[in-house]
Structures are given as C-alpha cells and as structure tokens.
Amino acid sequence: MGRRVLLGTLGLGALGVLTAPALQRATDAFLAGASQKDPTGLTGLLPNGGGFRYYSVTASVPHKNETNYRLTVDGLVDRPTSYTLADLRALPQTRLVHDVQCVTGWRVPSTPFEGVRLSHLLDAAGVRPSAGAIRFTCFDGAYTESLSLRQAYRPDVLVALRMQDKPVGHNHGGPVRLYVAPMYFYKSAKWLSGITVTEDVRPGYWEKRGYDVDAWVGRSNGRDDEPTS
Ligand SMILES: Nc1nc2c(c(=O)[nH]1)N[C@H]1C(S)=C(S)[C@@H](COP(=O)(O)O)O[C@H]1N2
Ligand SMILES: [Mo]
C-alpha cells in the first residue's frame, strides 16, 4: 500500500469514529451560542422545532441513555434513592397538556408532557419534617433550579420522560427533564439528574441572575402573560 493510500484509509477510519459525537458537540455548541445572543428570534428556526428555542447554559452536554442515566433523590429524606429510566417508566405516569411560556416572550400552545409526578418520588423517599424546599441539579454540570416543598407537591409538576408524545430528546433535556406547568419554562430543568430535599429554597441558575424564584406565569418577572396551568 502506498503512503498516500494508507494515510487516506486511516483518515477515513478516524473520521468514521469521530464524526457522530464531534458533529453533535459542534451542533450543541452552535445552538447554545446562537440562542444566547438572539435579539432577532432567528434561533426559533433552528432545531427544537415546533416553536421551541434551544437553550443551554453550557457549550456541550453529555448524552445519557438507558444504560448510564440515573436520577438520584437525596437530602432530607429517610430513603435516598437512585432511579434508572426503566425504574421511572415502571411508576405511574401522568400526561398533562398546557401551553409553554418562556420568560423571554415565546409561547408554544398545548404541549403534552408525560412522566412521574414529583410528589410520587418525594413520598417514596420519605421527606423529613425539617424539609422546606427542593434543589434540582442537571448532568450538564451547571444548571440548577428550585421549588418550595409546597410547589413541588403540586399535581402539575412532573419528572417528564415524554414531551410532544415522544421520549424527551437530547436537545429538549432528555432523557429526563423537570416540567413545572404553571411556571415560566426556566423552571423546567433539562437533563435532570438530582433531586435534593433541602431546608430552604436555594435560588437556581437564572434566579441568581435576576429571574424570580416564584416563577408563576403571568404573576412574576414583571410580565402579564395568560397563566399556563
Ligand atoms: N439544564 C438546563 N435546563 C434548562 C435551561 C438550560 O439552559 N439548561 N434553560 C431553561 C429555559 S430558560 C427554557 S426556556 C427551557 C427551554 O427548553 P427547550 O430547550 O426544550 O426549548 O429550558 C429551561 N431548562
Ligand atoms: Mo426561557
């Protein structure tokens, strides 16, 4: 084999190995960059589709699936628990259909979300009397969110496995995202990996940067949108 042919072959082989993850990283980074500085609304034309914008505070997010996804419930509970996707699917599922409202103004009508009620996971873990709030963490390694315990027990707050009647895709925060129907969409943490029961509310990523901790649609952040739930 001549030197050029050998190099060519190696090059193609390397490309084959690299292309899929490298492309995904490039896409993630591009979408993240584009959506963060978008006064035009043009990122609405990019993937996530159906009126949704792609948001991520990190340039790339690892992909999690059937084999490596875990959701932990810990903190002020009697029984700390770790769930696989199969574990979550085996629990009672609730389907809700409401509008989605982002605090930057865009709204998507009647979007189905389906998954396990957060209250179910909290009851299973046994929340201690000293508890007052929940802190959510994500496997992007950066995003966090919060709810008061009272908000967390609402029946329209889900640990969502499905969105738009299909499994939550990676760009929408799959395989598992939080869904807080009555609040601005920043509450619905994508790539959910941790539910920690705490004493007090610890403001989340955007809340430390000025958004309201109690994010009711139409009654917070100085906005007057129609409520979503
Ligand atoms: N982990 C994580 N979750 C997140 C965000 C984020 O940047 N990272 N952005 C929030 C905001 S501001 C919105 S509007 C929605 C966007 O969800 P989408 O990308 O499915 O449209 O996710 C919310 N959850
Ligand atoms: Mo948002």
UniProtKB/TrEMBL annotation:
<dbReference type="Pfam" id="PF00174">
    <property type="entry name" value="Oxidored_molyb"/>
</dbReference>
<dbReference type="InterPro" id="IPR000572">
    <property type="entry name" value="OxRdtase_Mopterin-bd_dom"/>
</dbReference>
<feature type="domain" description="Oxidoreductase molybdopterin-binding">
    <location>
        <begin position="60"/>
        <end position="206"/>
    </location>
</feature>
<dbReference type="InterPro" id="IPR036374">
    <property type="entry name" value="OxRdtase_Mopterin-bd_sf"/>
</dbReference>
<protein>
    <submittedName>
        <fullName>Oxidoreductase</fullName>
    </submittedName>
</protein>
